[in-house]
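Researcher: Let's try something more involved. This one mixes different molecule types, so please make sure each is placed in the same coordinate frame as the others.
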Amino acid sequence: MATAVEVHDLKAWFGKTEALHGINMAVEAKHATAVIGPSGCGKSTFIRCLNRMHETNPEAKSEGTVRVGGVDVYEMPAVDVRRRVGMVFQKPNPFPTMTIYDNVAAGLKLNGTHNRKILDDIVEHSLQQAALWDEVKDILKKQSGASLSGGQQQRLCIARALAVSPEVMLMDEPASALDPISTAKIEDLIFELKQKLTIVIVTHNMQQASRVAEFTGFFLMGNLIEFDKTEKIFTNPSDKRTEDYITGRFG
Amino acid sequence: MPNRNISLRRQMTDYFFTGLAASLSVIVVSALIAILAYLVLRGAGSLNLSFLTQTPKPVGETGGGMANALLGSVMILGIASLFGVPVGIGAGIYLAEYGRNRLGQLVRFTSDVLNGVPSIVIGLVAYGLVVLPQRHFSAFAGGVALAIMMIPTVARTTEEMLLLVPHAVREAAFGIGIPQWRTTISITLPTARAGIITGVMLAFARVAGETAPLMFTAFGNQFWSFSANQPIAALPLQIFTYAITPYDDWHRQAWAGALMLVILIVGTTTLVRFVFMRRMLGGAR
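Model: All components are placed in one shared frame. Result:
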């Protein structure tokens, strides 16, 4: 078992408010790790620290170490970190002025890859990985990414993130804005993707966490209360607060 | 059981306010239509081929036209846009993407003040900046004056339009490792394009009719001039010159000039929209 992301004593602030109080976590490579907890517990902030998206907020700062593949993310340029650690957001956010093709190719094109053959191959491969290829292969360069349905848009965003071949994929409630069928498709996708890369998924839906993730961390008020195998968290948690949360007593 | 009186009252209120809004819109539109109609009525008769091809005739001779003034306006506005639009858009980008600091506040405040400075004062500034050092009036000086007037409008609309682009779009770009400058050029700006073009056209239309700042910069010219370095005629100047004379023929030409100016503005605006909007995707909006 290898560790893909190693988090040590991670603290994060918004202005003067401390949102994370020293998180330690070792994320297993090529597995899915779920992050659960009530709203405002810091789970989104946590995963946004893993690819340095947290600091794009001018008020925000963070402290501690996050190692991806053994390298401290704060020692490399933020843009390189984000190519190695991709992200899918809660609401599908395709680039509205771009075609489906350009949406997927954006990460490569805007960083200097212009070889048509390479781009074509990567676009097709990424869309296939995101299980969207068959639905869009005839309208790739004709329609805008924004013309797709919500579920398709989210898979397009996954394809766009995959196109820069990240080692880790962060998903911030990727299915919470989608209908049950689209949600099921995203979950199937997570199963496929974790054969090849590491997934960290934030979710409000505990059934979803138990379906897709081998490991689960429970956050509460900026602390990681418990981190263990998903089965253990949901059947026999060691902490009273975890038990209260998963049995629906608060949150 | 719904109370019938309340529902009737609500319906009447609804009718009243819908009617009020509709009639107010009619007032706005009819002001525009009235101006246009009156312009056409007074100006269309004199808007003939010689008006579009000839230069002004000396006093006493009938005929002649404003061809040189039309060209002059096009040149001055071209020069103004050449300087004003890039500077304005650049400043707008700074304000929206980087300007959450003291410098940003300063730029915002100055540009709002600049927007309120009377146009004749801007003309004086261009006179001091360009005409005095060069020791002669020029189309270039007129362009500089109008460019200064365009900058605040373009900058603030660009800023507002960029801020309307959802933060999620920028995050999507950062999330796949696209640097911030690249995101601005290739993703945020194109997303805000329609609004920015509207802002640019608004600024263009506003300065196209300016007369005062041209009086001691472009100065005016009764003859053809093709040089940016020489005094040049402009439609608003020519309209002003003709309108204050006692000659009926020149009055008619002034009306035709005014109509021509409106056609120039509407034509440019439509053309720019057509050219830039067509490049937007069919599927998106």
